[in-house]
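Example for tutorial group B:
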Protein backbone atom coordinates (compact mmCIF):
# COMPACT_ATOMS: atom_id res chain seq x y z
CA UNK A 1 0.00 0.00 0.00
CA UNK A 2 1.35 3.44 -0.89
CA UNK A 3 1.94 5.97 1.86
CA UNK A 4 -1.26 7.93 2.58
CA UNK A 5 -1.11 11.63 1.85
CA UNK A 6 -2.34 12.41 5.39
CA UNK A 7 -2.31 10.20 8.47
CA UNK A 8 -3.56 11.24 11.90
CA UNK A 9 -2.55 8.67 14.52
CA UNK A 10 -3.73 8.44 18.15
CA UNK A 11 -4.46 12.17 18.11
CA UNK A 12 -5.54 13.97 21.28
CA UNK A 13 -6.22 17.68 21.56
CA UNK A 14 -7.92 19.99 24.02
CA UNK A 15 -7.90 23.77 24.48
CA UNK A 16 -5.89 25.01 27.43
CA UNK A 17 -7.70 24.40 30.70
CA UNK A 18 -10.47 22.24 29.20
CA UNK A 19 -11.72 19.49 31.54
CA UNK A 20 -11.70 16.87 28.76
CA UNK A 21 -10.12 16.50 25.32
CA UNK A 22 -12.10 17.77 22.34
CA UNK A 23 -10.34 15.18 20.17
CA UNK A 24 -9.78 11.77 21.71
CA UNK A 25 -7.62 9.06 20.12
CA UNK A 26 -8.32 10.04 16.51
CA UNK A 27 -7.05 7.77 13.74
CA UNK A 28 -7.71 8.93 10.19
CA UNK A 29 -6.03 8.71 6.81
CA UNK A 30 -6.51 10.25 3.39
CA UNK A 31 -5.04 8.37 0.45
CA UNK A 32 -3.54 9.93 -2.68
CA UNK A 33 -6.30 11.54 -4.74
CA UNK A 34 -8.98 10.49 -2.24
CA UNK A 35 -11.91 12.67 -1.15
CA UNK A 36 -12.58 12.03 2.56
CA UNK A 37 -15.43 13.67 4.44
CA UNK A 38 -15.92 14.46 8.13
CA UNK A 39 -19.48 14.40 9.41
CA UNK A 40 -21.01 14.70 12.85
CA UNK A 41 -23.26 16.93 14.93
CA UNK A 42 -22.32 20.46 15.96
CA UNK A 43 -19.56 20.40 18.55
CA UNK A 44 -18.37 16.92 17.59
CA UNK A 45 -14.82 18.12 16.82
CA UNK A 46 -14.78 18.46 13.01
CA UNK A 47 -13.23 21.93 12.87
CA UNK A 48 -10.80 21.11 15.68
CA UNK A 49 -9.61 18.04 13.78
CA UNK A 50 -9.08 20.05 10.60
CA UNK A 51 -7.10 22.68 12.53
CA UNK A 52 -4.74 19.96 13.76
CA UNK A 53 -4.45 18.56 10.25
CA UNK A 54 -3.37 21.87 8.68
CA UNK A 55 -0.90 22.75 11.44
CA UNK A 56 -2.95 25.42 13.21
CA UNK A 57 -3.52 23.58 16.52
CA UNK A 58 -0.70 21.44 17.88
CA UNK A 59 -2.03 18.12 19.25
CA UNK A 60 -1.38 17.22 22.89
CA UNK A 61 -0.51 13.67 21.85
CA UNK A 62 -0.33 11.62 18.68
CA UNK A 63 0.96 12.54 15.25
CA UNK A 64 -0.08 14.32 12.07
CA UNK A 65 1.95 12.93 9.20
CA UNK A 66 1.96 14.26 5.64
CA UNK A 67 3.41 11.77 3.16
CA UNK A 68 5.26 10.13 6.05
CA UNK A 69 6.62 13.36 7.57
CA UNK A 70 5.55 14.67 10.98
CA UNK A 71 4.29 18.17 10.11
CA UNK A 72 5.23 19.49 13.54
CA UNK A 73 8.84 18.51 12.93
CA UNK A 74 8.89 20.66 9.78
CA UNK A 75 8.60 24.41 9.27
CA UNK A 76 5.33 26.28 8.69
CA UNK A 77 6.54 27.11 5.18
CA UNK A 78 7.16 23.43 4.44
CA UNK A 79 3.57 22.67 5.44
CA UNK A 80 2.18 25.63 3.45
CA UNK A 81 3.93 24.37 0.32
CA UNK A 82 2.03 21.08 0.65
CA UNK A 83 -1.28 21.86 2.37
CA UNK A 84 -3.86 24.39 1.18
CA UNK A 85 -6.90 25.37 3.23
CA UNK A 86 -10.36 26.73 2.39
CA UNK A 87 -12.29 27.92 5.44
CA UNK A 88 -15.96 28.82 5.93
CA UNK A 89 -15.41 32.57 6.19
CA UNK A 90 -14.35 34.79 3.31
CA UNK A 91 -11.14 36.68 4.04
CA UNK A 92 -10.95 40.43 4.35
CA UNK A 93 -10.09 41.58 0.85
CA UNK A 94 -8.62 45.03 1.68
CA UNK A 95 -9.57 46.23 -1.81
CA UNK A 96 -7.85 43.34 -3.58
CA UNK A 97 -8.76 42.22 -7.06
CA UNK A 98 -9.55 38.62 -7.97
CA UNK A 99 -6.04 38.22 -9.38
CA UNK A 100 -4.50 39.66 -6.19
CA UNK A 101 -6.38 37.14 -4.02
CA UNK A 102 -5.39 34.21 -6.22
CA UNK A 103 -1.75 35.36 -6.35
CA UNK A 104 -1.58 35.05 -2.55
CA UNK A 105 -1.46 31.29 -3.08
CA UNK A 106 2.07 31.63 -4.45
CA UNK A 107 3.41 33.13 -1.19
CA UNK A 108 4.81 29.86 0.24
CA UNK A 109 6.78 29.31 -2.98
CA UNK A 110 8.26 32.78 -3.39
CA UNK A 111 11.80 32.46 -4.64
CA UNK A 112 11.13 29.13 -6.40
CA UNK A 113 9.54 30.48 -9.60
CA UNK A 114 10.12 33.60 -11.61
CA UNK A 115 7.39 36.14 -12.13
CA UNK A 116 6.50 34.90 -15.61
CA UNK A 117 5.94 31.34 -14.39
CA UNK A 118 3.73 32.57 -11.55
CA UNK A 119 1.71 34.77 -13.90
CA UNK A 120 1.16 31.90 -16.33
CA UNK A 121 0.07 29.56 -13.55
CA UNK A 122 -2.37 32.15 -12.15
CA UNK A 123 -3.86 32.87 -15.57
CA UNK A 124 -4.21 29.17 -16.40
CA UNK A 125 -5.96 28.50 -13.09
CA UNK A 126 -8.29 31.48 -13.46
CA UNK A 127 -9.20 30.32 -16.96
CA UNK A 128 -9.78 26.75 -15.79
CA UNK A 129 -12.33 27.97 -13.22
CA UNK A 130 -13.99 30.45 -15.58
CA UNK A 131 -12.63 33.44 -13.68
CA UNK A 132 -10.22 34.99 -16.18
CA UNK A 133 -12.77 37.62 -17.35
CA UNK A 134 -13.16 38.67 -13.68
CA UNK A 135 -9.43 38.83 -12.93
CA UNK A 136 -9.34 42.61 -12.41
CA UNK A 137 -12.69 42.85 -10.62
CA UNK A 138 -12.80 43.59 -6.90
CA UNK A 139 -13.09 40.43 -4.83
CA UNK A 140 -15.66 42.10 -2.58
CA UNK A 141 -18.07 42.57 -5.51
CA UNK A 142 -18.36 38.86 -6.30
CA UNK A 143 -21.21 36.55 -5.37
CA UNK A 144 -20.70 33.87 -2.74
CA UNK A 145 -20.22 31.17 -5.37
CA UNK A 146 -17.70 33.26 -7.29
CA UNK A 147 -15.76 34.00 -4.11
CA UNK A 148 -15.53 30.28 -3.37
CA UNK A 149 -14.16 29.68 -6.86
CA UNK A 150 -11.57 32.42 -6.31
CA UNK A 151 -10.49 30.78 -3.05
CA UNK A 152 -10.27 27.43 -4.84
CA UNK A 153 -8.08 29.09 -7.49
CA UNK A 154 -5.88 30.50 -4.73
CA UNK A 155 -5.55 27.01 -3.24
CA UNK A 156 -4.72 25.45 -6.61
CA UNK A 157 -1.94 27.91 -7.46
CA UNK A 158 -0.43 26.98 -4.10
CA UNK A 159 0.19 23.57 -5.77
CA UNK A 160 -0.54 21.55 -2.62
CA UNK A 161 -0.55 17.80 -2.11
CA UNK A 162 -3.56 18.09 0.20
CA UNK A 163 -6.54 20.45 0.24
CA UNK A 164 -8.46 20.84 3.52
CA UNK A 165 -11.93 22.41 3.51
CA UNK A 166 -14.19 23.40 6.38
CA UNK A 167 -17.81 23.36 5.17
CA UNK A 168 -16.92 24.25 1.56
CA UNK A 169 -20.58 24.55 0.48
CA UNK A 170 -21.65 26.79 3.36
CA UNK A 171 -23.80 29.74 2.17
CA UNK A 172 -23.95 28.45 -1.41
CA UNK A 173 -27.12 27.70 -3.34
CA UNK A 174 -27.56 24.16 -4.79
CA UNK A 175 -26.16 25.06 -8.21
CA UNK A 176 -22.91 26.41 -6.78
CA UNK A 177 -22.67 23.60 -4.22
CA UNK A 178 -22.67 20.99 -6.97
CA UNK A 179 -20.38 23.01 -9.23
CA UNK A 180 -17.79 23.56 -6.49
CA UNK A 181 -17.74 19.92 -5.40
CA UNK A 182 -17.42 18.74 -9.00
CA UNK A 183 -14.49 21.14 -9.45
CA UNK A 184 -12.88 19.83 -6.28
CA UNK A 185 -13.19 16.23 -7.47
CA UNK A 186 -11.63 17.25 -10.76
CA UNK A 187 -8.46 18.60 -9.14
CA UNK A 188 -7.00 15.14 -8.49
CA UNK A 189 -5.77 16.35 -5.10
CA UNK A 190 -6.17 14.54 -1.82
CA UNK A 191 -9.15 16.20 -0.14
CA UNK A 192 -10.34 16.32 3.47
CA UNK A 193 -13.56 18.26 4.09
CA UNK A 194 -16.18 18.68 6.79
CA UNK A 195 -19.86 18.55 5.83
CA UNK A 196 -23.22 19.33 7.40
CA UNK A 197 -25.14 18.21 4.30
CA UNK A 198 -24.90 14.43 4.44
CA UNK A 199 -26.40 13.96 0.99
CA UNK A 200 -23.57 16.02 -0.53
CA UNK A 201 -21.03 14.04 1.47
CA UNK A 202 -22.61 10.79 0.22
CA UNK A 203 -22.52 11.94 -3.40
CA UNK A 204 -18.94 13.21 -3.56
CA UNK A 205 -16.82 11.50 -0.88
CA UNK A 206 -14.96 8.22 -1.29
CA UNK A 207 -14.97 7.60 2.46
CA UNK A 208 -16.48 9.22 5.54
CA UNK A 209 -15.45 9.54 9.18
CA UNK A 210 -18.22 10.13 11.71
CA UNK A 211 -17.25 12.17 14.78
CA UNK A 212 -19.24 12.33 17.99
CA UNK A 213 -17.99 13.99 21.18
CA UNK A 214 -14.45 14.12 19.80
CA UNK A 215 -14.17 10.46 18.86
CA UNK A 216 -14.41 8.57 15.57
CA UNK A 217 -17.48 6.38 15.98
CA UNK A 218 -17.71 5.07 12.41
CA UNK A 219 -15.73 5.19 9.18
CA UNK A 220 -15.96 3.65 5.75
CA UNK A 221 -17.68 4.23 2.44
CA UNK A 222 -20.89 6.27 2.42
CA UNK A 223 -22.85 3.02 2.02
CA UNK A 224 -21.16 1.55 5.10
CA UNK A 225 -21.46 4.65 7.29
CA UNK A 226 -24.76 6.29 6.40
CA UNK A 227 -27.10 3.76 7.92
CA UNK A 228 -30.36 4.52 9.68
CA UNK A 229 -28.98 3.13 12.94
CA UNK A 230 -25.78 5.20 12.81
CA UNK A 231 -27.66 8.41 11.97
CA UNK A 232 -30.13 7.85 14.80
CA UNK A 233 -27.37 7.17 17.32
CA UNK A 234 -25.13 10.09 16.31
CA UNK A 235 -27.61 12.78 15.26
CA UNK A 236 -30.57 11.74 17.40
CA UNK A 237 -32.95 11.91 14.44
CA UNK A 238 -34.71 9.19 12.51
CA UNK A 239 -33.92 8.96 8.81
CA UNK A 240 -34.89 6.91 5.80
CA UNK A 241 -31.81 5.76 3.88
CA UNK A 242 -32.20 4.33 0.39
CA UNK A 243 -30.21 4.27 -2.84
CA UNK A 244 -30.27 7.42 -4.94
CA UNK A 245 -32.40 6.68 -8.01
CA UNK A 246 -29.87 8.17 -10.44
CA UNK A 247 -26.50 7.37 -8.83
CA UNK A 248 -24.91 4.55 -6.80
CA UNK A 249 -24.75 6.30 -3.44
CA UNK A 250 -27.07 6.56 -0.42
CA UNK A 251 -29.86 9.12 -0.20
CA UNK A 252 -30.99 10.38 3.20
CA UNK A 253 -34.46 11.65 4.01
CA UNK A 254 -34.84 13.02 7.51
CA UNK A 255 -38.03 12.08 9.35
CA UNK A 256 -39.63 14.79 11.47
CA UNK A 257 -40.72 13.73 14.97
CA UNK A 258 -44.42 13.01 15.18
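The residue assignment follows.
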Amino acid sequence: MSCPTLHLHALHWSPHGAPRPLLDNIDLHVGPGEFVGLIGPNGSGKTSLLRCAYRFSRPDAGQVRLEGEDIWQRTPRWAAQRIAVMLQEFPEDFGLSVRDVVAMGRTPHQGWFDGDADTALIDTTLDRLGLLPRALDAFTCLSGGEKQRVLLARALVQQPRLLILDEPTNHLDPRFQLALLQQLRGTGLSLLASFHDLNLAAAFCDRLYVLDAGRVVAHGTPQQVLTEQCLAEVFGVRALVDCHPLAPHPRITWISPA
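The chain has a mean pLDDT of 91. Compare this with the pattern of hydrophobic and polar residues in the output above.
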